[in-house]
């Protein structure tokens, strides 16, 4: 069995679909995007890539889509057909049991929009985005829309007390040695878990931004970031936390940008967060610098998986951002200089504004004298 067959068979597990459907943040965001922006779907031809049970296709049909091609490669397509019939949308939604790469539409028809929930853990796990971009190149009109249209991966250093803290006092005993070896055994595979926002040790940084309307499949092969930051509070540096945001090309009725976020600061989703655990924790104080390089590379043997590699760097040898929040002497001096220049600029602006006000008053006085 090749990797693609194994992947599609995994999606015949109904528990996976139940988990996705019951993910309120995920499902309600897609429904809100569609309901609040009906002009993109009403009387339009839509393609749903990897439709699963067909929930997104149903949402599109409910707001008046003219035609929905619901493409699903796994055998869950047979259940999707029953669900479409159950909702009386057989004339609107056509479930196509096929890989989207093999689909041929009647008369080489082009679609007005492509919608898909393709995201995996840390965004790219499972590699389904490849199929969405292939569908875009093959079926989307030149002025067509992608839902979502862009996505970004974020990284932040973190603590994971939920994994290790309990072992310090476990049923009246200290099991810290066990926790140490447990940590060492976990650093070969990312942990999928919910990270609390208070366990983030520093501001997050964007690792990559993906434009679904323009990027090529080859653009997804590798991403890398080298970053240094100052710790924002005292804590145990135990790993790097990864999450993603997806942006839709619309504004919702409450006048907010339509964003599906899996951040620790957002409501929990079934994706949770991905944590790359360090083999040894570091006790850090506020302002202490952290430097790391994170490489995300597509696996050569299985294109649906990525290899994540973290290198801990010496903050002394890495270029810092300006201004930097760490407490290294050079960063403190640069930050003070930047603040001084900003204050000087504000003072200069205020002086010019005061001079302008004085000139305006003199002009008013001259006008009053002339009138007199």
UniProtKB/TrEMBL annotation:
One of its GO terms (biological process) is methylation. Keywords: Methyltransferase, S-adenosyl-L-methionine, Transferase. Its EC number is 2.1.1.319. GO terms for molecular function: histone methyltransferase activity; protein-arginine omega-N asymmetric methyltransferase activity; protein-arginine omega-N monomethyltransferase activity. It catalyses: L-arginyl-[protein] + S-adenosyl-L-methionine = N(omega)-methyl-L-arginyl-[protein] + S-adenosyl-L-homocysteine + H(+). InterPro entries: Arg_MeTrfase (IPR025799), PRMT_dom (IPR055135). The keyword S-adenosyl-L-methionine applies. Pfam families: PrmA, PRMT_C. PROSITE patterns: SAM_MT_PRMT. The keyword Methyltransferase applies. It comes from the Eukaryota. CDD domains: AdoMet_MTases (cd02440). Residues 150-310 form the Protein arginine N-methyltransferase domain. GO terms for cellular component: nucleus. It is an enzyme of class 2 (transferase). This is type I protein arginine methyltransferase. It comes from Parnassius apollo (Apollo butterfly).
């Amino acid at each position: 069995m090749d990797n693609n067959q194994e992947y599609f068979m995994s999606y015949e597990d109904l528990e996976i679909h139940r988990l996705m459907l019951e993910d309120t943040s995920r499902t309600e965001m897609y429904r809100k995007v569609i309901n609040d922006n009906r002009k993109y779907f009403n009387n339009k031809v839509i393609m749903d890539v990897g439709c699963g049970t067909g929930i997104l296709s149903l949402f599109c049909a409910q707001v008046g889509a003219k035609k929905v091609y619901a493409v699903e490669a796994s055998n869950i397509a047979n259940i999707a057909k029953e669900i479409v019939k159950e909702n009386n949308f057989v004339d609107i939604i056509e479930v196509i049991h096929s890989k989207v790469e093999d689909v041929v539409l009647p008369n080489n028809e082009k679609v007005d929009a492509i919608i898909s929930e393709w995201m995996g853990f840390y965004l790219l796990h499972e590699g389904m985005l490849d199929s969405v971009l292939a569908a875009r190149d093959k079926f989307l009109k030149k002025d067509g829309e992608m839902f979502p249209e862009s996505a970004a991966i974020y990284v932040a250093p973190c603590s994971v007390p939920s994994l290790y803290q309990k072992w310090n006092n476990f049923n009246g005993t200290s099991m810290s040695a066990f926790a140490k070896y447990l940590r060492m055994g976990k650093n070969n595979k990312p942990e999928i878990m919910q990270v609390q926002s208070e366990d983030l040790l520093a501001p997050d940084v964007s690792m990559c931004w993906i434009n679904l309307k323009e990027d090529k499949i080859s653009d997804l092969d590798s991403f890398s970031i080298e970053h240094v930051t100052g710790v924002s509070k005292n804590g145990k540096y135990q790993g790097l936390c990864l999450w993603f945001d997806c942006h839709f090309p619309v504004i919702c009725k409450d006048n907010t940008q339509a964003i599906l976020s899996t951040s620790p600061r957002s409501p929990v989703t079934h994706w949770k967060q991905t944590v790359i655990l360090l083999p040894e924790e570091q006790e850090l104080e506020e302002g202490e610098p952290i430097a790391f390089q994170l490489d995300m590379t597509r696996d050569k043997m299985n294109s649906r998986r990525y290899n994540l590699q973290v290198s801990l760097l010496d903050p002394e040898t890495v270029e810092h951002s300006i201004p930097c929040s760490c407490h290294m002497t050079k960063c403190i001096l640069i930050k003070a200089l930047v603040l001084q220049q900003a204050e000087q600029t504000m003072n200069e602006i205020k002086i010019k504004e005061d001079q302008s006000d004085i000139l305006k008053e003199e002009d008013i006085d001259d006008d009053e004298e002339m009138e007199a």
